[in-house]
Amino acid sequence: MAEFRRYRGSDLRTFLVAIFEHYGVSHADAVAEAESLVRADEMGIDSHGVAHIMANAYIPGLRSGEVDAKAQPEVVRQTAATALMDAHGGLGGVATTRAMELAIEKARSTGAGFVAVSNSRHFGAAAYYALLPVEHGMLGLSMTIGGLGVVPTYGRGRRLGINPLAFAAPSKHRHPFLLDIATSVVAGGKLELARMNRRSVPLGWIVDRAGKPTTNTDDYYAGGALLPLGGTPETGSYKGYGLAVMIDILCGVLTGMGFAASLGQTSARPHFVGAIDIAAFRSLDDFTTMMDEMIDTLGATEPAQGAERVLVHGEREFDAIAERTRNGIPLHPEVVDRLTSVAEAAGVPLPAPV
Amino acid sequence: MAEFRRYRGSDLRTFLVAIFEHYGVSHADAVAEAESLVRADEMGIDSHGVAHIMANAYIPGLRSGEVDAKAQPEVVRQTAATALMDAHGGLGGVATTRAMELAIEKARSTGAGFVAVSNSRHFGAAAYYALLPVEHGMLGLSMTIGGLGVVPTYGRGRRLGINPLAFAAPSKHRHPFLLDIATSVVAGGKLELARMNRRSVPLGWIVDRAGKPTTNTDDYYAGGALLPLGGTPETGSYKGYGLAVMIDILCGVLTGMGFAASLGQTSARPHFVGAIDIAAFRSLDDFTTMMDEMIDTLGATEPAQGAERVLVHGEREFDAIAERTRNGIPLHPEVVDRLTSVAEAAGVPLPAPV
Known about the structure:
- The structure is a homodimer.
- Chain A is of the alpha+beta class.
- In chain A, helix 4 links the parallel strand 3 and strand 4.
- In chain A, helix 1 runs antiparallel to helix 2 and helix 2 packs across helix 4.
- The mean pLDDT of chain A is 96.
- At the A-B interface, strand 4, strand 9, helix 8 and helix 10 of A face strand 4, strand 9, helix 8 and helix 10 of B.
């Protein structure tokens, strides 16, 4: 087992801000981008945190110009409750944070706000944005087109993105409800992990290039694809397929950027975020009281034979936040190596572990 | 094979309107309710059409008073983009149609409209409502809490509703995109069908009272439950579980009516509908042109080995509309018997088959 070292979240924020500033990003934008990444780590979404910084949507993109450090998201069209924002090729976390801030502002005045974002880059963890309205007593929704990797039901080859959807709602004394799911059976990260460890994957995750179910991850990388949520036609794969297309429509067709199959393999990404003000429907206090009741009821479900207990979405993430805020964020040695090389190239000191 | 007889949609509409009027429903409300039912049949959603009329949410409910024939949906709270509507125990199709009309009106003036409905009854097919905004160049969304029937991941017993979600978007020369799914692996109708035919169901649909997977439908009716979309934890059942809770929140907690587990087995239902105006984001013509491209791209996906072709959501329903508008709606002899007894009790003549 590789030895993880723990880093304080505040130290990682300061470090990332300095790195982004080094590559020409303004201080305010660097703070927004760093926050989206480190918060993902604090929630335990390690695949979408600082470990991701060497993906094209971040440092290499800033170096090559594929990501425009100076780009400022621009509202190109808006109504009282909606806006279309052009990210102009800038960092995804910056554009999506601004988009959600605008959605919250609109929800405060009209009850609901929805902002579609074009020409953005990978935005990290969908959960991060869905949680922003929760701080304001609102429901939050975020989605994006992910990498092309999913096969439509009865087909072969990749025609759908690994499209995530996140939804969050506040509670009173419990954790917020937080759903963050890819509309494929699993997200890409779990395949990558299985491949690295030379392990087979369960039947129902992937198909080979002929569209036939397989447990060998090599088949995925040789022209295969992930299955949509539901797995097979018999167990509802057209549902995951349809949810992926719904996200393609809300992000890609509504902005005009294109759907997953037309976008292809690029770091350019559209997003869709929304906020709904709970007070427009009923008192926030009554709402959050009922949320607590619901969370308690679900959590108290008698476990199935052999199972430990029933979890409610968000519990794991908020437990991780509590633990990692206290003890620091554990980083894999390979991630530390990655950050070390980023630090050296930018002449910015890497913080010491806890 | 039982012999189906075909009835003209217009005849069934006239018949149902007379039936509802007989039980005290106003003409305008009877037309709205009949339309939601017959249109479901035309789309091929037979389980939610006229066959459903003997469920408590319809004729028996009107007879017993469980459904209030005279109830008028009332907007009890609203903002520019949202409304909370109280259906006051009236017919679900009436309240939900009014709710969606209000959402469309709000979307026309602010870009987006969302209406939550409390104290309603079963609303029929979610697809019907999601399609209403499409006629106005808008995206449509509808959901409701279904009957208590789904087990949370790692649990036993029914804590979640068979909650459906529908989403629709217009195209230019193709059919509209139309997603209408239950967030369980399958909807209840498929189990009922398997039980009637004494057939086992695939592993991954249901669990027994101990929470263990089973293929015997008797186990479902003896305290078992449907699995959430995703089936097992390994293939993402927490995703279907979370989507079901999201719908509980938007329909039940936002209206204050309660979540699936607190509502229990009742015909009282909350709903949530929304409309988003495409023109608020980009030209409708550009949008629908890209929708056609997307539908063509998905439909042209090379089929998997042994499969015939890839379908796109909505194709089947709009093919059914074309065929059934031409040839009439095929009704099972048992459904005809049901309608005959309804006709006799109300003194309203059943139309002749085509």
